[in-house]
């Protein structure tokens, strides 16, 4: 996929890590307001706390901050916390919204001193705007070009000191000159189940939902290491408990609710299982090409590659090889299937398929 292409959207999936519309509004009510409330990411929290405290002690603006990591791990939340900790307003925009240098110049010229500019998906910003951002970050000024051709004139425009917080899901696509201009870079890791349990318990209190330890643990185990997914699953389990139970989120209620929504014990949903089932049952565990696998499950190639595969690879259920996609022994075990006789450790030619 090219850097400027629209990424596949998984907002229709209960375990999708992106959010739009009403989902964003629901998230806003659950977001922590300061670093002491923020759960998880201990290294990033500690380092960021030092950066912000030092900036406040100097009475100046904080260094520019780059946050990288998968969707749903809290990059937007941390940007809001940075603004709150610095007592500054925040302006929120995204890379795809800035397609011309003039778009960026209009935003930068309207910033106030100390303001935080949050630029989501910064790697998808246009190249001309990116080059203008270099000077704005380093010298707090931009050159606005007036006119065209030989008569064009560059007018320097001084900017008040500001803090840029860039967020990206694909840090490798950022050019080194842009990456180097950030004073602090934090990489967001996936959450451990114990951390997600704390996230769920906190969200349950805010939603005024009674949740047992077992219920929180059951949801955490199916949340794919992502707080956004954990909060989404909590709201769906709450709905089930209110309609089919006594309103209490217990382990049993969570298990039954997530079975209704087709989220299994490891967090796989219909799409994930379709990919694994096609790989195992139709192709004997692989290797099989990505395009062929996508046709087999009736999805676009990009959807399989960008939406389903990352989690399956991270869970050790699927491997990418030069010859194609192959299933691991854990995939056979998870679907309750036995590998064909003579199959290699991570997949091979089908010689029969047996239910275990």
UniProtKB/TrEMBL annotation:
Top-level division of the source organism's lineage? Bacteria
* One Gene Ontology biological process: DNA recombination
Q: Where does Mg(2+) bind?
A: 76
Residues recorded as binding DNA, renumbered to this chain, are 301, 320, 325
Reactions catalysed, semicolon-separated, are: ATP + H2O = ADP + phosphate + H(+)
Domain AAA+ ATPase intervals? 61-194
- Disordered, as annotated region: 337-356
Enzyme Commission identifier(s): 3.6.4.-
Q: What GO MF annotations does this protein's record show? A: ATP binding; ATP hydrolysis activity; four-way junction DNA binding; four-way junction helicase activity
Q: Where in the cell is it found?
A: Cytoplasm
Q: Which residues form a coiled coil?
A: none
Q: Where is this region: Head domain (RuvB-H)?
A: 265-356
The record's section on InterPro entries has:
AAA+_ATPase, AAA_lid_4, DNA_helicase_Holl-junc_RuvB, P-loop_NTPase, RuvB-like_N, RuvB_wg_C, WH-like_DNA-bd_sf, WH_DNA-bd_sf
Keywords assigned: ATP-binding, Cytoplasm, DNA damage, DNA recombination, DNA repair, DNA-binding, Helicase, Hydrolase, Nucleotide-binding
Q: What class of enzyme is it?
A: hydrolase
Small ATPAse domain (RuvB-S): annotated span: 192-262
The answer to whether the entry has keyword DNA damage is yes
Indicate yes or no for the key word Transmembrane.
no
Q: What does this protein do?
A: The RuvA-RuvB-RuvC complex processes Holliday junction (HJ) DNA during genetic recombination and DNA repair, while the RuvA-RuvB complex plays an important role in the rescue of blocked DNA replication forks via replication fork reversal (RFR). RuvA specifically binds to HJ cruciform DNA, conferring on it an open structure. The RuvB hexamer acts as an ATP-dependent pump, pulling dsDNA into and through the RuvAB complex. RuvB forms 2 homohexamers on either side of HJ DNA bound by 1 or 2 RuvA tetramers; 4 subunits per hexamer contact DNA at a time.
Q: Which PANTHER family match?
A: HOLLIDAY JUNCTION BRANCH MIGRATION COMPLEX SUBUNIT RUVB (PTHR42848:SF1), PTHR42848
Its family remark reads:
Belongs to the RuvB family.
Q: How does it assemble?
A: Homohexamer. Forms an RuvA(8)-RuvB(12)-Holliday junction (HJ) complex. HJ DNA is sandwiched between 2 RuvA tetramers; dsDNA enters through RuvA and exits via RuvB. An RuvB hexamer assembles on each DNA strand where it exits the tetramer. Each RuvB hexamer is contacted by two RuvA subunits (via domain III) on 2 adjacent RuvB subunits; this complex drives branch migration. In the full resolvosome a probable DNA-RuvA(4)-RuvB(12)-RuvC(2) complex forms which resolves the HJ.
Q: What is known of its domains?
A: Has 3 domains, the large (RuvB-L) and small ATPase (RuvB-S) domains and the C-terminal head (RuvB-H) domain. The head domain binds DNA, while the ATPase domains jointly bind ATP, ADP or are empty depending on the state of the subunit in the translocation cycle. During a single DNA translocation step the structure of each domain remains the same, but their relative positions change.
Q: Which protein, by its recorded name, is this?
A: Holliday junction branch migration complex subunit RuvB
Organism per entry: Streptomyces xiamenensis
